[in-house]
Amino acid sequence: MFNIMNTSNTSPTDIKTGARLRYLRERAGLSQRALSKRANVPNSTISLIESGQTSPSVSSLKRLLDGIPIGMSEFFAFEPEPEHKVFFAAEELTKISGGKLSLRQVGGNLFGHSLQILHETYQPGADTGLKAYQHDGEEGGIVVSGRVEVTVEEERKILGPGDAYLFNSNRPHRFKAVGAVECIIISACTPPSF
User: Fold this and answer.
1) What is the mean pLDDT of the chain?
2) CA–CA distances in Å: residue 70 to residues 27, 41, 81, 101, 163
3) Would you list the domain boundaries of the chain?
4) CA-to-CA separations, 83 to 37, 108, 121, in angstroms, rounded
């Protein structure tokens, strides 16, 4: 998981606001990039808000909601129905990022859930960024294939197939694929914060 700023002050409200924005954006059939163009808000800002890593200013949130479009009062009153689906085929995982680092989430709507499960695919050399990521909660994962360098504060280890990690997500952390083959990780985070 990744971030470009320190987010040790992330609150449950930030996470809920971000999840609500993501849900409504996706329901409107908009990518983050399309909403960014409509609202004149940087794509990176939308990503940070949706992952609960930052709180939007009132003016930024208003521009984003106008781009969907939905009113501010309707936005805060909206509560999506929790997803009740139990089983997911591989092609039903929700893509939440692509490129050299692909993240696919089990379930599309995490409202009502306290756990987020991700299928992470790192192409050779892909990483979560130079800046360490922090958020409330805990996370863990198991490397399925390839190798990944995991850094948690000052601790650093290269993990291979079958190796695992588990840590408090308030600790600054980052991931980087090492070697010539893609790395696949199955990870979980609680509460959902990406």
Assistant:
1) 85
2) 12, 16, 18, 31, 45
3) 17-75, 90-189
4) 29, 8, 25
Sequence-distant (≥ 6) Cβ neighbours of residue 73 within 8 angstroms: none
Fold of 17-75: 434 Repressor (Amino-terminal Domain) (1.10.260)
Least confident range from 110-114, 116-120, 124-128: namely: 110-114
- Its sign, for the CA torsion 101, 90, 26, 10, is negative
Measured CA angle at 97 (ends 91, 100), to 5 deg: 100
pTM summary value? 0.66
Tokens 């958020």 belong to residue? 135
Is CATH 2.60.120.10 the classification given to domain 90-189? yes
List, for residues 10-68, the tens digit of each pLDDT value. 444 555 788 788 888 888 888 888 999 999 999 888 888 887 778 888 888 999 999 99
Query: Helical H runs in the chain?
Result: 12-27, 32-39, 43-50, 58-67, 72-77
CA distances to 46, 122, 165 from 157, in Å: 31, 16, 10
